[in-house]
Every structure is written in structure tokens, then in C-alpha cells.
Write a structure and sequence with these properties.
The chain has 505 residues and is an alpha+beta fold. Among the domains are: 187 residues, 3-Layer(bba) Sandwich (FAD/NAD(P)-binding domain), CATH 3.50.50.60; 75 residues, D-Amino Acid Oxidase, Chain A, domain 2 (2-Layer Sandwich), CATH 3.30.9. The protein has 16 helices and 24 strands. A seven-stranded mixed sheet has the order 6-5-17-18-19-16-20. A six-stranded mixed sheet has the order 10-2-1-14-23-22. Strand 17 and strand 18 form a beta hairpin. Bound molecules: flavin-adenine dinucleotide (FAD). The site of flavin-adenine dinucleotide has 38 residues, from helix 1, strand 2, strand 3, strand 16 and helix 10.
Length: 505
């Protein structure tokens, strides 16, 4: 490769989380190549920021970018997230956990889950009873100890709740000081040549900008990938029924648990996401089963013991699915412009990061080699499909019959990939064929066992292990988890300390 074919100029359109994550990431990893990165953002089209929950990959992103985690947390109104507590999904008054991290431990190279199945422990306890993260979250402790070290901090098996608009603003400061050019203007025209490549972008102020690569971060509207390049959308409304959301904010709870709560309601589910200054809350629902007014009324009733901070509900329509090509010619789509799954498992911001990291694996030169583009698109498609199947599981395992929505959720089409996954799991707890790794095997074990779906028999290899040793391991895990949880501070106090700057370094 000669230097003359290097990608030199990159234009990012859109200044939400996707746009500014891309700006930070690319400016950091391309800094030795003398690239010129410009972000164009509309001054009037708002970004999405409803109080977002994230996945542990974001810890890696923050560390790789060289950001100070405490500064990031303060500026983005962040709190810790150790997992999700699902309430009323299987039946009313029944909860289950999806905590992050290894659950208990690995015995002879196998997940504790298989030994738990063999010992028939599911009759009197949950698999998540062995999770350190679930224990800490239940007890409203912070994973960060006052000495700044803890098992969870060291392994990075935690995530954050954050304000996505504040996160975008934080990233903007970092990107601009790293040399990214920032233009406030609305892109009006995006002419395309006969090869299906973008020629330039034209703004409302009459300016024209050209680049070797264009990154579409314009949110659901997909200005470049959809409106200009007409890449079709693969729609998944046959699989996932929720297509609408309403967001509201409430005063923070007296007790702040470091986890997201997802509570099943009549026609979908409600998220409660603790931020440092408020409780982000909303209702994701199917508008075929509930209209907007009824959804707000149900949400307000559900949250009646809380004080609303902002009474103006924010309604959002959600197109569930993804672009048939995430990268085409000289245009890459990221964030909501690339695709969207309902936020049940916090995949939105994760997909931006996953897209950027994958793009770096296949980073092109100006030849824009077709095989790189195909490989990228294949990997992104797999990541979206696996995540779709994972989210579908939550609905398919529900035993609720009380509303038409919950009845309909179980009569949706089941994709062959999910059928295949379930048939192996049902036989002996085997999980095979998960290529993208968006969620580790442990996550599937939490959701499946939490939904009372157990394999017919244990994994054959568990019979080879020394059973006395296994029994001892089970006992030791609970003792060790309590010992690790005890010195940890109260989560709410920790967050207050952090924001009073006394916790700053
Ligand atoms: C109800 C809901 C709940 C969610 N919850 C979560 C969650 O818990 N966890 C999670 O990870 N994700 C969640 N998400 C997704 C997450 O909010 C987004 O993935 C993330 O904020 C990225 O958004 P974005 O940057 O792609 O788009 P946006 O925030 O919509 O930003 C689009 C940008 O494009 C600009 N723009 C648009 N048109 C033009 C134009 N013509 N010219 C110039 N600029 C333009 C806008 O000004 C804006 O800056 C949720 C989404 C929704 C809808």
C-alpha cells in the first residue's frame, strides 16, 4: 500500500452519541496517519438522550480512549450498572437477574451453570444466587471501593447508566481538543455518482464538503445511507412487537441500586435507569396494543410513588431492524442510522462501539476493497441477528396470559437461528454457533434459567469432575461473594461523593 491511497479525509454527519464516539475513536486510532476528521452536526435537530444503560464493553472504550473514568462519570451523570433486574416478566411478582461477569466461577473449564443443573439446584435457588454482581446490586453497594480497587473494577465486569446527550457533549470536548473539526450546519443535499458513492455533502449555508469516507450518524433518519444511497431496511416487526417508547424523568430513589430495572407492563415493559441527578424512566410498548395516551397513563400509575421531574413525555417511534448494508462504497452507517433493537439489553451504544472496532479491523484505503466491505457487513449482520434472538428469548419465556400483548409475544415467528440455539440448549445446556459474542454464554444461562427453561440433562462432561470438589466450590462461592461485597460502600453515597468532587483525584 502506498501512502497516496490512504484515507485522508473523513466526514461524520451527526453529533449524537454515534457521531462523537466515532470522532473520538477515529481521531485516536488514526492520529499517526495524518487524517483530517470533520463532524457536521445540525444545530436544530435534537439528539436522543433518554437515560441510557450500557454494556461492559464501554469500560474498555473509556479506558482505550484514555479518559478518566471519574471525570467521565461526573460529566455524563453516570452511575454504575452491574446488570438488569427483570420484574414481572415470567409471571407477576416474580423477578430474575441478568448480572454481568462470570457467575461464581468456571470448574474444569466449564461454566458453573452445568454443575448447577447436574446438582438439581434450580429447585431451591437461582443460578444468579452465585453472581457477585447480583449480590452487590441487591445490597445497593458500589462496585468501586474507597481504596479504588475491587474484583469487579479489576475485571471490568461492570457498565454504566448515563445521559446520552451529556455523553455526546463530553465526547465532543475530547474530540475537538484532539483536532476534530466541528461544523454546525444542516446537511441538505448528498449527491451520489453512478457507482453508488457519495460525491459531497451540501449544507444549508451553501457549503460543499468532500471526503474519502463519509460516516452517517444522523440517527433514525439515515440521511446518507437511506435517503441518499437508498439502502433498504431489514425490518423485524414480525419478531419483536414493541415499536414505540415514551420517556420521562423522576426524582432519584432514596436507595440507588447499581442496576437497571426492566418491569413488564401491559403492552411492553418499563425501564428505570438511575442517573446521578434523576431516575430515567420510560415505557417501550407496542402501539398495536396500547395507544400513546394509555401508555403514559399506565406509566404514571406504575410510577405513582415517584415525583416526576419533567412532566412533558417524550414519544419516540422505533424502527426495529437494520440496514441491509451497514457499509456501502464510501459510506459507513453507525448508531441509529445503522439499525436499532429495543433497548431491553442495552445494545444501542454497544453497537456503535462494536461497529467502530470492527471497522478498524477492516479499515480500507481509498480503493474501498469490496471484500473488506462484505466482511464488515457480514459481521455486523450476525451481531444484530444474535442480539435480536437474545432479546426475543425474554418474551418467548414469559408465561403471562393477562393481556393480549403477552399472548401475542409468544406466537411470533421464531428465526431458524434461535430454533437451532434452543434445541441444543434444551438437550444438554449446549450453546453453539454464537459468533459475535455480544453476550457471553453466562448471559444466556441467566435469561434461560431465569425464564424457567432448563436443559433435559446436564452437559455430559460434568460427570467427569470430582463431585466432592464441586460441592465445596458451590459453598465457597457464596462465602467469597459475601466477603467481597461487605467492604464496598453504599452506591448512592459513592455517587454523591463523586459528584461533590470529594471523590475526585
Ligand atoms: C427509547 C430509546 C431508549 C434507548 N435506550 C438505550 C439504552 O438504554 N442503551 C443504549 O445503549 N442505547 C439506547 N438507545 C439508543 C441510543 O440512544 C442511541 O443508540 C444513541 O444515543 C446513538 O444515537 P445516534 O447518535 O445514532 O442518533 P441521534 O442521537 O438521533 O443523533 C443524530 C444526530 O444527527 C444529526 N442530524 C440529523 N440530521 C442531520 C442533518 N440533515 N444534518 C446534520 N446533522 C443531522 C442530529 O442533529 C444529531 O446530532 C435508546 C434509544 C431509544 C429510542
Amino acid at each position: 500500500m502506498t501512502a497516496s491511497t490512504d484515507i485522508r479525509r473523513i466526514i461524520i454527519v451527526g453529533g449524537g452519541t454515534a457521531g462523537w464516539m466515532a470522532a473520538c475513536y477515529l481521531s485516536r486510532f488514526l492520529k499517526r496517519t495524518d487524517s483530517d476528521i470533520t463532524l457536521v452536526e445540525s444545530p436544530s435537530i435534537k439528539t436522543i438522550g433518554v437515560g441510557e444503560a450500557t454494556l461492559p464493553g464501554l469500560v474498555r472504550f473509556i479506558r482505550n480512549m484514555g479518559f478518566d473514568e471519574r471525570e467521565f462519570m461526573r460529566d455524563c451523570k453516570a452511575t454504575y450498572k452491574l446488570g438488569i433486574k427483570f420484574k414481572d416478566w415470567i409471571r407477576k411478582e416474580q423477578d430474575y437477574w441478568h448480572p454481568f461477569g462470570v457467575c461464581g466461577g468456571i470448574i474444569d473449564g466449564m461454566d458453573l451453570f452445568h454443575f448447577w443443573i447436574k446438582a438439581n439446584r434450580q429447585h431451591d435457588e437461582s443460578y444468579s444466587d452465585y453472581s457477585l454482581q447480583a449480590l452487590i446490586a441487591e445490597n445497593a453497594r458500589s462496585p468501586c471501593s474507597t481504596e479504588d480497587v475491587s474484583h469487579i473494577m479489576e475485571t471490568g465486569a461492570y457498565a454504566f447508566h448515563l445521559d446520552a446527550a451529556a455523553f455526546a457533549n463530553y465526547l465532543k470536548g475530547k474530540a475537538v481538543s484532539a483536532g476534530v473539526k466541528h461544523i454546525l450546519a444542516e446537511v441538505e443535499h448528498v449527491p451520489v455518482n453512478e457507482k453508488g458513492e457519495i460525491i459531497q455533502i451540501e449544507t444549508d449555508s451553501g457549503q460543499k464538503h468532500t471526503a474519502d469516507l463519509y460516516i452517517d450518524c444522523t440517527g433514525f433518519r439515515g440521511l446518507l445511507i437511506s435517503r441518499a444511497l437508498a439502502i433498504p431496511f431489514t425490518e423485524w416487526s414480525d419478531y419483536l412487537l414493541c415499536n414505540r417508547a415514551v420517556a420521562l424523568s423522576f426524582e432519584t430513589d432514596k436507595v440507588m441500586h447499581p442496576n437497571t430495572c426492566a418491569t413488564a407492563l401491559d403492552a411492553g415493559w418499563s425501564w428505570q435507569i438511575p442517573l446521578s441527578d434523576r431516575l430515567g424512566c420510560g415505557y417501550v410498548y407496542s402501539n398495536a396494543h396500547k395507544d400513546d395516551a394509555a401508555a403514559v397513563a399506565e406509566l404514571m400509575e406504575f410510577m405513582s410513588d415517584h415525583h416526576a421531574v419533567n412532566q412533558e413525555p417524550q414519544f419516540l417511534s422505533m424502527a426495529v431492524g437494520h440496514r441491509q448494508q451497514f457499509w456501502t462504497g464510501n459510506c459507513l452507517a453507525l448508531g441509529l442510522a445503522a439499525g436499532f433493537l429495543e433497548p431491553l439489553e442495552s445494545t444501542g451504544i454497544h453497537f456503535i462501539q462494536y461497529g467502530l472496532e470492527t471497522f478498524m479491523d477492516y479499515f480500507p484505503d481509498r480503493k474501498l476493497e469490496r471484500s473488506l466491505i462484505d466482511a464488515y457487513n457480514d459481521r455486523m449482520k450476525i451481531a444484530y441477528e444474535e442480539s435480536r434472538d437474545f432479546i426475543m428469548l425474554h418474551y418467548l419465556l414469559s408465561q403471562r396470559e393477562d393481556t393480549l400483548f403477552w399472548q401475542n409475544c409468544r406466537s411470533v415467528k421464531i428465526p431458524p437461528s434461535l430454533q437451532k440455539l434452543l434445541s441444543l440448549y434444551d438437550e444438554a445446556g449446549i450453546l453453539e454457533g454464537l459468533k459475535a459474542g455480544v453476550f457471553p454464554d453466562t448471559s444466556y444461562f441467566h435469561i434461560l434459567s431465569g425464564g424457567e427453561r432448563f436443559p433435559r440433562r446436564p452437559l455430559p462432561m460434568v460427570n467427569v469432575s470430582d463431585q466432592d470438589k464441586v460441592t465445596q466450590v458451590f459453598e465457597n462461592i457464596k462465602i467469597a461473594n459475601i466477603a467481597m461485597m461487605k467492604p464496598l460502600p453504599n452506591h448512592k453515597k459513592w455517587i454523591e461523593l463523586l459528584n461533590n468532587k470529594q471523590g475526585s483525584r
